[in-house]
């Protein structure tokens, strides 16, 4: 009741001196923990939000000032929001978007055919949006954002709630439009496997600032220093002890070892292992990207 009469306001600085350039044709993973400022950045870059300060130039346009001419060049997908009309068949929304963006009929037809085929929308486009599952709707959302053939695609959690098959289909599609049409993609997601599958570059933000800007392999070299060695061997009671190696788990005939590759060479570990047990099989795995990102968040205390 009190809040109805006396509103308390607090200032939140959502972004603070964020600065980066993105080249045409890049796929950039824009990542960070909850509340880091990812959606705010995407909203500024797509012209929905006006920043209090600073500048942003995309293809020569200032998104929030040149909205009418700028939106022709961009496609936006917000995983949490729909740009499709809820009660009408998907194709009606597509046709409305065609008219809003004034897409020439020939371009619309060829874009639609390509999107329907690659995103497997044949059976969906005549169904009202409210009758679609989340994954089906997301595939239609992505198609809707691309009908006018944009140069840049902003994706804010595009694979949220998708099953494994739809996720792979959506990722494959993003890759294809990037490679074949040179579409620049800016992707925010909490799903690190999306990042691993798609992004050549990562921008990590936290507390509204850019903390890391680099390639995934650079991040791995810097933060992913552990490798997992999974060894299968003929069962034995003898202990496995190797300097610089942690035995993460051990069950009948199998041990999982964690190796700090800055301290210990993998070849040495396998050599010592084969002296201590009768090895049957060995596999080596890089540190999962999720764990690398958790380390990053810890290092920057975000
Ligand atoms: N409409 C709003 N009014 C007030 N504060 C907001 C609003 N939207 C976002 N914020 C604040 O701005 C900051 C950045 O939010 P933003 O939505 O950009 O984060 P995010 O990185 O996209 O987070 P998430 O991963 O949870 O989606 C947060 O502190 C958030 O509370």
UniProtKB/TrEMBL annotation:
Keywords from the UniProt entry: ATP-binding, Nucleotide-binding, Transport
SUPFAM superfamilies tied to this protein: P-loop containing nucleoside triphosphate hydrolases
Residue ranges of every copy of the ABC transporter domain listed in the record: 1-232
Name of one Pfam family that matches: ABC_tran
Domain of life: Bacteria
Coiled coil regions in record: none
Stored InterPro entries: AAA+_ATPase, ABC_transporter-like_ATP-bd, ABC_transporter_ATP-binding, P-loop_NTPase
Gene3D superfamilies per UniProt: P-loop containing nucleotide triphosphate hydrolases
GO MF terms held by the record: ATP binding; ATP hydrolysis activity
Protein name: ATP-binding cassette domain-containing protein
